[in-house]
Amino acid sequence: MPLQGLGVVMGNRIIKNKIAGGIMFTMTVASILLVILIGLGLYLKSVPIFQHYSFWHLISSTEWKPGSGKFGFLPFIAGTLWITFIAVVLALPIALLTALFLTEYSKSYVKKWVFTALDILAGIPSVVYGVWGILFVVPWISEKLAPHFVEYSTGYTVLAGGIVLGVMILPLMISLFVEIFSAVPREYRDASLALGATKWQTSKYVILRKTFPGILAALILAVSRAFGETIAVLMVCGNLPLLPHSLFDACYPLPALIANNYGEMLSVPLYESALMLAAFLLFIVVFIFNASSRAVIYRIEKRFR
Amino acid sequence: MAQLIYQNSTRASWAEDYSFLNNDIENREGLALKKSYLKVSDLNLYINKTHILKNVNLEIPDKKITCIIGPSGCGKSTLLKTFNRLIDDTEGIKYDGSIWVDGLNIFDPKTEITEIRKKMGLLSQRPCPLPMSIYDNIAFGCKMHGEHNRKKLNQIVEEQLKAVGLWGEVKDRLKAPASKLSIGQQQRLCLARGLAVEPEFILADEATSALDPISSKHIEELFVELKNDYAIILVTHTLRQALRIADHVIFMYLGEVIESGAADVVFNNPKHDLTKKYLEGAFS
């Protein structure tokens, strides 16, 4: 009797297990399919413009005059890359040192306090960062910093966009790095410290080395987010469709282009298609960046372990 | 007459110079001659108000294997980690009392903790090679202490790898990642890494418990060999291991040192009831 009952229960459990597995598999496939569909949709929508210009011409030309049918995307691509690059250069060292401090040096109550502050920082709406940029960063650049380097700058520049974006990705970067550093087993620290190494030497030669692939992976995540950040950057970067030649020139990143113009392009032929191409380009930039850095991580991991 | 449960033929006859191992101050003079000297007096240690080590007093003899035995959770490993103050990084730690290493109180704020740690090679339960090559693992400690002469480093690496019997096995692949070695080899590498900074003590925290019997025997033999030059302090769960290689035994129970003394005496003729029970295997 009990054995029979057991058999029935087992059958149920196995069926449930199979259903659960099937649902999860479907969900996984669906989310991957979504990525492909978005890419495909963007491509199809931007096809009309390809019938007039070649892909290469579109991404290499610098002239943007939709009214006269000139669609050069290079300024936008350059603007996106510049701002993201500056943001990462500014945020990376700060994030690394903060995360090292929190995991290796600080007491737990300091950690708690800082994490609360970081959570607040991460929760501030994008538009508030933009306002902060306009109120403080932009005037600071135009009045204090730019006069040392160029004759005149409005302050609405590549640099302002980079600084605001850097501050925005900082909380994400720090919490990712803290997670990575905390995952290093205590034995590694003990082994190094027991040899008489200082905490700094241990952090530099053991922790950073051990987590190097992880740091890169976290960086990719942060940069991918930075690529798409729109509102705050749009508010401080000047939005002139020109190729920036210095940090103190205005620029016009891809997300800002889409957000500023979508909905106002109906009368201009090919405009909608051009904006879809902008979105498609952003998609491609993020995709290429992700894929190539994954490849780098893979090679590094192979060499380290 | 108590039954002799312990006999170790490899052990040197050291009972005669063992007399300094008592706590009276008068005999302290002789201790200045000893190269390595570790003495714990009135050590109390608390983690988050929990009393972990209770009034510990003991001395560690030089050029001997000292085994710290006792049931799980009695503070053996904590005591070991207090010797080189690795315990400092534990949250909520508080201690008083003193530990003297070569005449320096390691809790004194003036004492350079990195120098104390340099004197003590640590061997952890699971081998933990640093994420770098075999060569760099051994050279790491020396580099951290400012030795960058390539020739000298080469010499140190070869010397230490030979000391742990690993040279022949790895000399052709010194640049390979240390994690590629077998677990037994890794533990010997860790030992060599500790020896490279010229310590006086070797602290081993159940150093053989994660190893297979053959690797574990290998490490034990190394300890017996190394005690000619170092004071070895070994925390162990395996009573049989202590029986095999201990010269001096410290028995701990619930954070207290119940009994300590020459292995012959403690194993064959334990004074304390708890020690007797533990040796009989009543609890472990």
Question: Cα-atom Rg of chain A, whole angstroms?
Answer: 25 Å
CATH superfamily of the largest domain in chain A: MetI-like
Q: What's the count of strands of chain B?
A: 10
Ends apart, CA distance between termini of chain A: 54 Å
Q: What is the ordering of alpha helices and beta strands of chain B? A: HEEEHEEHEHHHHEHEHEEHH
What oligomeric state best describes the polypeptide chains here? heterodimer
Structure description:
The complex is a heterodimer of chains A (305) and B (284). With 305 residues, chain A is mainly alpha-helical. Chain A folds into two domains: 2-51; 59-304, MetI-like (MetI-like fold, Orthogonal Bundle), CATH 1.10.3720. Chain A has twelve helices and two strands. A two-stranded antiparallel sheet of chain A has the order 1-2. The longest helix of chain A has 49 residues, at 2-50. With 284 residues, chain B is an alpha/beta fold. Chain B has a domain at 129-197. Chain B is built from eleven helices and ten strands. In chain B, the strands form two sheets. Chain B has a six-stranded mixed beta sheet, sandwiched between helices. In chain B, strands 2-1-4-5 form a four-stranded antiparallel beta sheet, covered by helices on one side. In chain B, helix 4 (134-144) packs across helix 5 (150-163). Chain B is globular.
